Amino acid sequence: MISLTVPVYNEREALGPLFEKVQAVMHRHFPEKWEIIFVNDGSQDGSAELLDGLAEKNPQVKVVHFRRNFGQTAAMMAGFDFASGDIIIPLDGDGQNDPQDIPRIVAKLDEGFEVCSGWRKDRQDNALQRNLPSILANKLISAVSGVKLHDFGCSLKAYRSEVIKGVRLYGEMHRFLPIYAKWHGARITELPVGHHARKTGHSKYGLERVLKVVMDLLTVRFLDKYMLKPMYLFGFWGFMFFIASFVFGAWAIYMRTRGYYFTGTPLPMMAVFSFMTGVICMLMGLLAEMITRTFHESQNKSIYLVSRTRNCEGQAGSV
Predict the structure, then answer these.
(1) Domain span at residue 146?
(2) Do 172 and 272 belong to one domain?
(3) Both 173 and 291 in a single domain?
(4) 135, 270, 272, 313: which sits with the fewest CB atoms below 10 Å from its CB?
(5) Cα–Cα distance measured from residue 236 to residue 19, given in angstroms and rounded to the nearest whole number
(6) pTM of the model
């Protein structure tokens, strides 16, 4: 079974053509072995009614309606939660991904990979507003994470369900899914895919997204290295500040033997501040350790709220 997941936010004009293309490809290559989950992320342009109509006419269509707009990451997470296939493929709802690429990326999984990431090699977007920031962000993410991909932002990817079913996404972390998959030991490959210019609606992203990518990347780097042992990070910096405090204190004493009063140099104050900062870092490390244990033992909070569903009866979270 192949599950396609499509986050939707005000894409009414693109949904009909997108479904027709997907349906043609899936019936030709994977008859009776597919489903598509549309996640309506609080759309206000009539997308909800159109999706309900598709679900009424097509049993392969599942629809999940959010109570309000929660963002693309939450919508993708809901798609994964409601997917029943052993292969999960996200698609953008704006029609820019080409469904004709689906059989090609599925074939890559048959070669033994757990993740096949799409690469929009010939991207049909604004060069300055979208393409250049994307290139810089992808290079930065690859360098920091160690996962060498050209296009982390391409939604068209294929995942074995076992490598992402246990992943919980927050904020805008969906672009880092291959990194999470690697943490689960997944083998990852990349495949150039088609990309079409947007014909309807307008882009929801701008240059401000670059800052969000950088902040999320810092979070992912922290989770990668120190999620299980945050004391290693805070303890290291606490130890460094203790050393700095000792150095400043010894230097102040040495200067006193040379005839300088303690009040005549900033060294005693720097020694005190460094010592206090070291103590704070140690205490923050201990607090982070407690939070980490609480997270792993009791965290089970959803990042979205579902108002109603179609064709999802019997699944967790259906209403």
Answers:
(1) 2-226
(2) no
(3) no
(4) 313
(5) 53
(6) 0.73
